[in-house]
Amino acid sequence: MPEHPVPKAGLEGVIASDTAICNVDEEKSELYYRGYSITDLARHSTFEETAFLLLEGKLPSAKELKEFHKTLSAARQLPAEVEEVLRWLPPATDPMDALKVAVGVLEATSREADSNSFADNRKKAIRLISRMPVIIAAQYHISRQKTVIKPRTDLSHAANFLYMLHGKEPDDFTSKALDTSLILYAEHELNASTFAARITASTLSDMHSAVITAIGTLKGPLHGGANEKAMEMLIEIGEPGKAEAWIQNAISRKHRIMGFGHRVYKKGDPRNPFIKKIAGKLGRRLGNTRWFEISEIVEKVIDREKGLHPNLDFYSSSAYYLLDIPISLYTPLFAAARVTGWTAHIMEQHADNRLIRPRGNYTGPKKRKYVPLKKRG
Ligand code: ACO
Hints:
Helix content: 55-70%
Radius of gyration: 22 Å
Bound molecules: acetyl coenzyme *A
CATH superfamily of the largest domain: Citrate Synthase, domain 1
Low-confidence stretches: none
Distance between the termini: 39 Å
Order of helices and strands: EEEHHHHHHHHHHHHHHHH
Shape: globular
Number of domains: 2
């Protein structure tokens, strides 16, 4: 028997921390933010209200929400240094890498950089939530030698991002579609990026450093990077008539199908019905149902052949495509929404901290005799 019990690979099933932010009921495929069902939040809330809920632990009053919206939109203006540093990056820089750099500059220009107090962390959280979409849109234009479109304070969080990206104010349906996807992406318990953020915070490092850790963790295709890969797959499939054969071939080659499967939800992702509905509606509204038709065939074949279900990333990909969002921005947008959960978790970690430092189960050779270099041959 080992001295310590060894968990399953990938820490599957391990409860790593108490948290009052999010609860996942894997048996019933249900998800709750601060005790509120994702079904109610996706149907009735806004991103701003959900962000307030995640940070403060309660739904805002009308006055509190108005105030929160004002603070959030007033913080949209980036420090000049951020744009300046973005201009120094090679144009081909991955937008997730640019995001890490920009968040580092936000830290360097923050008056509260060194403080982990609740009040200062709250200020930093609001600024990060407000500014990450602004950074993404700014870097997109800068990397194409285009003029950065200034943020507006009169638009919602989602509408302002689309405005800064496309240079025109989106209609209500379009901005609501993005708003709902941001609610769905905002938080998800101890997923890899949030856990990584909590590890960094547990060393009493600062919020920006923990967020940079999280961005780097989200970037991988097994986590946030899946939404971009899923869209690339749909484009490669090209038309509904080719979907079944394409997937059968991918399965026979033992390829991972991006946007399918989940560590926790084995019976289906509770966020999927909402994003699927959005993707379908966007397609019908724009008279372009091709991506939805391909997606439904892919979903059916993977369920039949592998018993796997789509996760949030799958239908997000075609929804974002129809919102005319460039593919390279899908994972950054995921980060821009999830920074809400990350910052809530960083504050929770700082409020009741103990260093996260697990043990390794050593599997290498033991007690080897050191041979001096000259005698090694
Ligand atoms: N395509 C094909 N096979 C898959 C997939 C998939 N998407 N997901 C799991 N499997 C198979 C594996 O090959 C493995 O089969 P085997 O036992 O025959 O080898 C089995 O299912 C178990 O796979 P694991 O990787 O051990 O399952 P885990 O719980 O660790 O995986 C994960 C979860 C990483 C999300 C996985 O399902 C995957 O790689 N999905 C694709 C990437 C993706 O969509 N990521 C987004 C996650 S959700 C989010 O970030 C919003």
